[in-house]
Each structure stands twice: as C-alpha cells, then as structure tokens.
Design a protein that fits this description.
Shape: rod-shaped
Distance between the termini: 41 Å
CATH architecture: Orthogonal Bundle
Strand content: under 5%
Helix content: over 70%
Number of strands: 0
CATH topology: Helix Hairpins
Order of helices and strands: HHHHH
CATH class: Mainly Alpha
Radius of gyration: 56 Å
Number of domains: 1
C-alpha cells in the first residue's frame, strides 16, 4: 500500500476515533446520570423501608397494648357482671317489687326529653306530668331505701365505678385499635412505595448496565482504531525508509551506469571533462 493510500486510511481512522470518543463520552455521561439516579432511588427505598419498619414496630407495640386493654376490659366486665348478680340478689331482698333505680332514672330522662322536644296536646302533657310525678316518687323511695341500706348502696356505688372503668377501657381499646390500624396502613403504604421504587430501580439498573456495555464497546473501538493508526504509521515509516533506500540504490545504480560509460570512453582514449572525472571518483573507478 502506497504512502498516499496509508495517509488516506489514517485520516479515515482519525475520523472514526473522534466518533468513537464522542460516543464513549455520551454513554459515560448517560452512565453517570443513571448511577446518580440509582443512588437516589436506593436512598428513597432505604428511607421507606426504615419508615415502614418503624410503623410496623409501632403497630405491634400498639396491638400488645390493645390486647392488654381488652384483657383488662374482660376482667372489669366479669367484675361488673358479678356485682350485678350480687346487686340483683340484694334488690330482691330489699326491693322485691321495685324496678332498679337506674331504670327509673333512664325512664325519667326519656320523659323529660319528650316533654322538651315534642309538641304535646293538653291531655298528653297532663299524662306525661302525672307519670313523671309518679316516677319521681318512686325514685325518692328507692333512694330512701338505699340510704337505710348501706350494703345495697355500697354495691350500687361499686357497680357504677366498675361500669365507668369498663367504659373508659372500652374507649381505650377502640382508640388503640384505631391507632394500630393507622400504623398498619402507614406501614403498608411505605412498603408499597418501596416496592414501586424497587421496580423502577431494576429498570434503571438495566439501563445502566446497557449504557456501561455501550461505553465499553465504544472504548474498545477507540482503542482498536488507535492501534490501527499506530500500525499504519509504522507501515508508513517502513515504506518511507524502503522508498529512501530504493531511491539511494537507484541513484547509485544510475551513477554506476553513467560511470561505466565514461570509463569505457576513458579506456578508448577519449578526452574527459571535469564532471566525468568527478563521476568516476563518485563511482570509485579512479
């Protein structure tokens, strides 16, 4: 291959090197962006997993409190039912024909509410007032009995106290259960977000690997083209040296041929010029 052909091929390779460099930089930049995106997604996944774990721990802790509160509520309910049985026994003893005081109070509240919120006729109003009067009398009677019967009053007070505690425990169970459910929903939300981000991370990871492979491929092409250029330049250097040697040999051959002609003329006795003698000296014939 001639020098011109080698130079042409070298220029083509230099152009390919520029293209390969540009392509490699493009994929390297893409790889850098994807790497940063990967790290950002990994950080978000870690954050949501930690939050999800924290909500799960809070949920589990709250569920333990719910279980303890339910147990306490059952104990209070049992105590309340036992008191009710005891109270019923005392009522039969001291109030054999009477209704429980709490039922009388409840009925009075219903009648008073109806009196305040309903439009009643004169007859209905009179009947309601009469019933209220009888109820009030019965309530007073029950209270007089209670005052005279400390044992019954003590059980009633204790029953009321246990009922209030049971109601509070019931409210506590409901509030704790709601809180546990809230923590559970937050936990599920965090883990769902983590799973969604992990799916996205897998896609980005795939893009990242492909970009790395493309960058490596472009780099290998670049290295290959550089190697080819070096080989061509070595070939060009070798060709130049050969051409130089060939030129020198040709020049020497031409000088020798001309000197041989002059030498033949010299042997024939022809007159030689100064240039002829210099040619014979250059050829080493004199």
């Amino acid at each position: 291959m001639s020098i011109d052909e080698l130079q042409k091929k070298r220029e083509e390779l230099r152009k390919k090197i520029g293209e390969a460099k540009e392509l490699r930089e493009k994929f390297n930049e893409k790889t850098k962006v994807l790497k940063e995106k990967k790290q950002k997604l990994a950080d978000q996944i870690k954050k949501y997993k930690q939050e999800g774990t924290r909500h799960r721990e809070l949920r589990d802790e709250t569920n333990i409190r719910v279980a303890n509160s339910k147990k306490r509520r059952r104990e209070l309910n049992k105590e309340y039912n036992d008191l009710r049985k005891e109270l019923e026994s005392l009522r039969k003893k001291y109030l054999p024909d009477g209704q429980p005081l709490e039922l009388l109070d409840k009925r009075r509240e219903e009648l008073e509410f109806r009196q305040m919120t309903h439009q009643l006729s004169k007859r209905e109003e009179a009947e309601l007032v009469e019933e209220l009067s009888k109820l009030n009398e019965k309530i007073k009677e029950r209270k007089r009995v209670l005052e005279k019967t400390p044992e019954l009053k003590e059980i009633l007070d204790k029953e009321q106290l246990i009922k209030e505690k049971g109601d509070k425990e019931h409210i506590k169970v409901r509030e704790l259960a709601d809180r546990a459910q809230e923590e559970h929903l937050k936990m599920v939300e965090c883990f769902n977000k983590s799973d969604e981000l992990y799916k996205e991370l897998r896609k980005v990871q795939k893009e990242y690997i492909l970009a790395r492979l493309d960058a490596d491929k472009a780099h290998k092409k670049l290295v290959s083209h550089i190697k080819e250029i070096r080989e061509i330049e070595e070939q060009m250097e070798s060709t130049k040296k050969k051409e130089k040697v060939d030129k020198i040999q040709k020049e020497r051959s031409d000088i020798q041929r001309k000197a041989d002609d002059v030498y033949e003329r010299f042997k024939k006795g022809e007159k030689l010029s100064t240039e002829d003698f210099m040619l014979l000296q250059k050829a080493g014939l004199i």
